[in-house]
Design a protein that fits this description.
The protein is mainly α and 297 residues long. It has 3 domains: 13-111; 120-215, Receptor-associated Protein, CATH 1.20.81; 226-294. 77% of the residues lie in helices and 0% in strands. The protein has 12 helices and no strands. It has helices at 13-20, 24-31, 37-43, 50-79, 84-120, 122-134, 139-148, 153-166, 171-180, 185-200, 204-256, 265-288. Helix 3 (37-43) crosses helix 5 (84-120). The protein is flat and about 85 Å long. The two termini are 30 Å apart.
């Protein structure tokens, strides 16, 4: 199982585990508040039990609350001593909650990356299986060929199935377990249909051909929806990236001609920074909206 370092950890992970062992009962109660945490940790292969992960989240919340409180309180005593305590508590709580929810969402982020890596190469891997099976190769040998090929996360997943089959597990059981532990809906659906075909004694090549055809149609639908969403996103980009900044700049220039209104240079630098942040956010939205089955085409 893969090991992932928990983000924002103030101490080495091994030391965090040792500290967390003393508060596992607290972590067990916290983990009950997040029922999907165990599934996300398992599918994301974080390699940490849900009780320990929840305990580490609580420890990091306490650490960053104290850290944020102390830093804010020290600075506030110089500039606003009458509000130092309240500002320290407020900033410390906000900082701690931000870190807490970021760590809570970390397994979900890992799972989404894994899903994208699996689905990016899924159609190509299934087509390889189909070609090999039609040429007379057994399903086990076809899976071995895909596992040894350059199919990204799909090859890695099939290698696990091969290892379990070689260790003595039945082929159907190995594939079922592979599907259960994978977060990709399309991968699970493909493996389950393959297993059902094996159990029913159907022609595997016919099953694989139907799988590839269905995924190809789903890919076309995803690309079509993506193209439609790009039209709206392009309009949004023109509004936020060109029209609104141009009108805003013109409006500021007009306001600067009035002697009662003082518009300094930092205002324009702030406007430039806002536009740059908006550009990066737009690129992130475009990337996240890209179809998962589209691959690297």
């Amino acid at each position: 199982m893969m090991k992932h370092n928990i983000p924002f950890s103030p101490l080495p992970q091994e030391l965090m585990f040792k500290i967390g062992e003393r508060f596992l009962s607290t972590g067990a109660r916290i983990s009950k508040l997040f029922p999907f945490l165990e599934t996300e940790l398992k599918q994301g292969e974080i390699g940490i039990e849900k009780e320990m992960y929840a305990t580490i989240m609580a420890i990091m919340f306490a650490f960053y609350f104290i850290f944020g409180f102390l830093v804010t309180y020290i600075f506030a005593t110089r500039f606003a001593p009458e509000n130092a305590l309240s500002l320290g508590l407020l900033i410390g709580a906000v900082f701690a909650f931000l870190v807490f929810f970021q760590v809570l969402l970390y397994p979900k982020i890992i799972v989404k990356k894994k899903v994208r890596n699996v689905e990016r190469n899924l159609i190509f891997a299934l087509r390889t299986l189909l070609v090999e099976i039609k040429s007379g190769v057994t399903l086990f040998d076809a899976i071995t060929i895909v596992a040894d090929g350059d199919n990204g996360q799909v090859s890695f997943e099939f290698k696990r199935a091969i290892e379990k089959i070689e260790a003595g597990m039945f082929q159907e059981e190995s594939l079922e377990e592979l599907a259960e532990n994978n977060p990709s809906l399309f991968f699970r659906r493909a493996i389950w249909q393959l297993v059902n075909g094996l159990k029913a004694g159907s022609d595997i090549s016919t099953v694989m051909e139907a799988l590839v055809e269905n995924l190809a149609k789903e890919k076309e639908n995803q690309v079509r929806r993506y193209g439609n969403s790009l039209k709206l996103l392009s309009l949004l980009y023109m509004m936020l990236g060109a029209i609104i900044p141009a009108l805003g700049l013109t409006f500021l220039i007009i306001l600067s001609t009035f002697p009662q209104i003082n518009i300094d240079e930092p205002v324009f630098w702030g406007m430039l920074g806002f536009i740059l942040v908006g550009q990066f956010m737009y690129l992130g939205v475009i990337k996240s909206a890209r179809p998962t089955l589209m691959g690297d085409e």
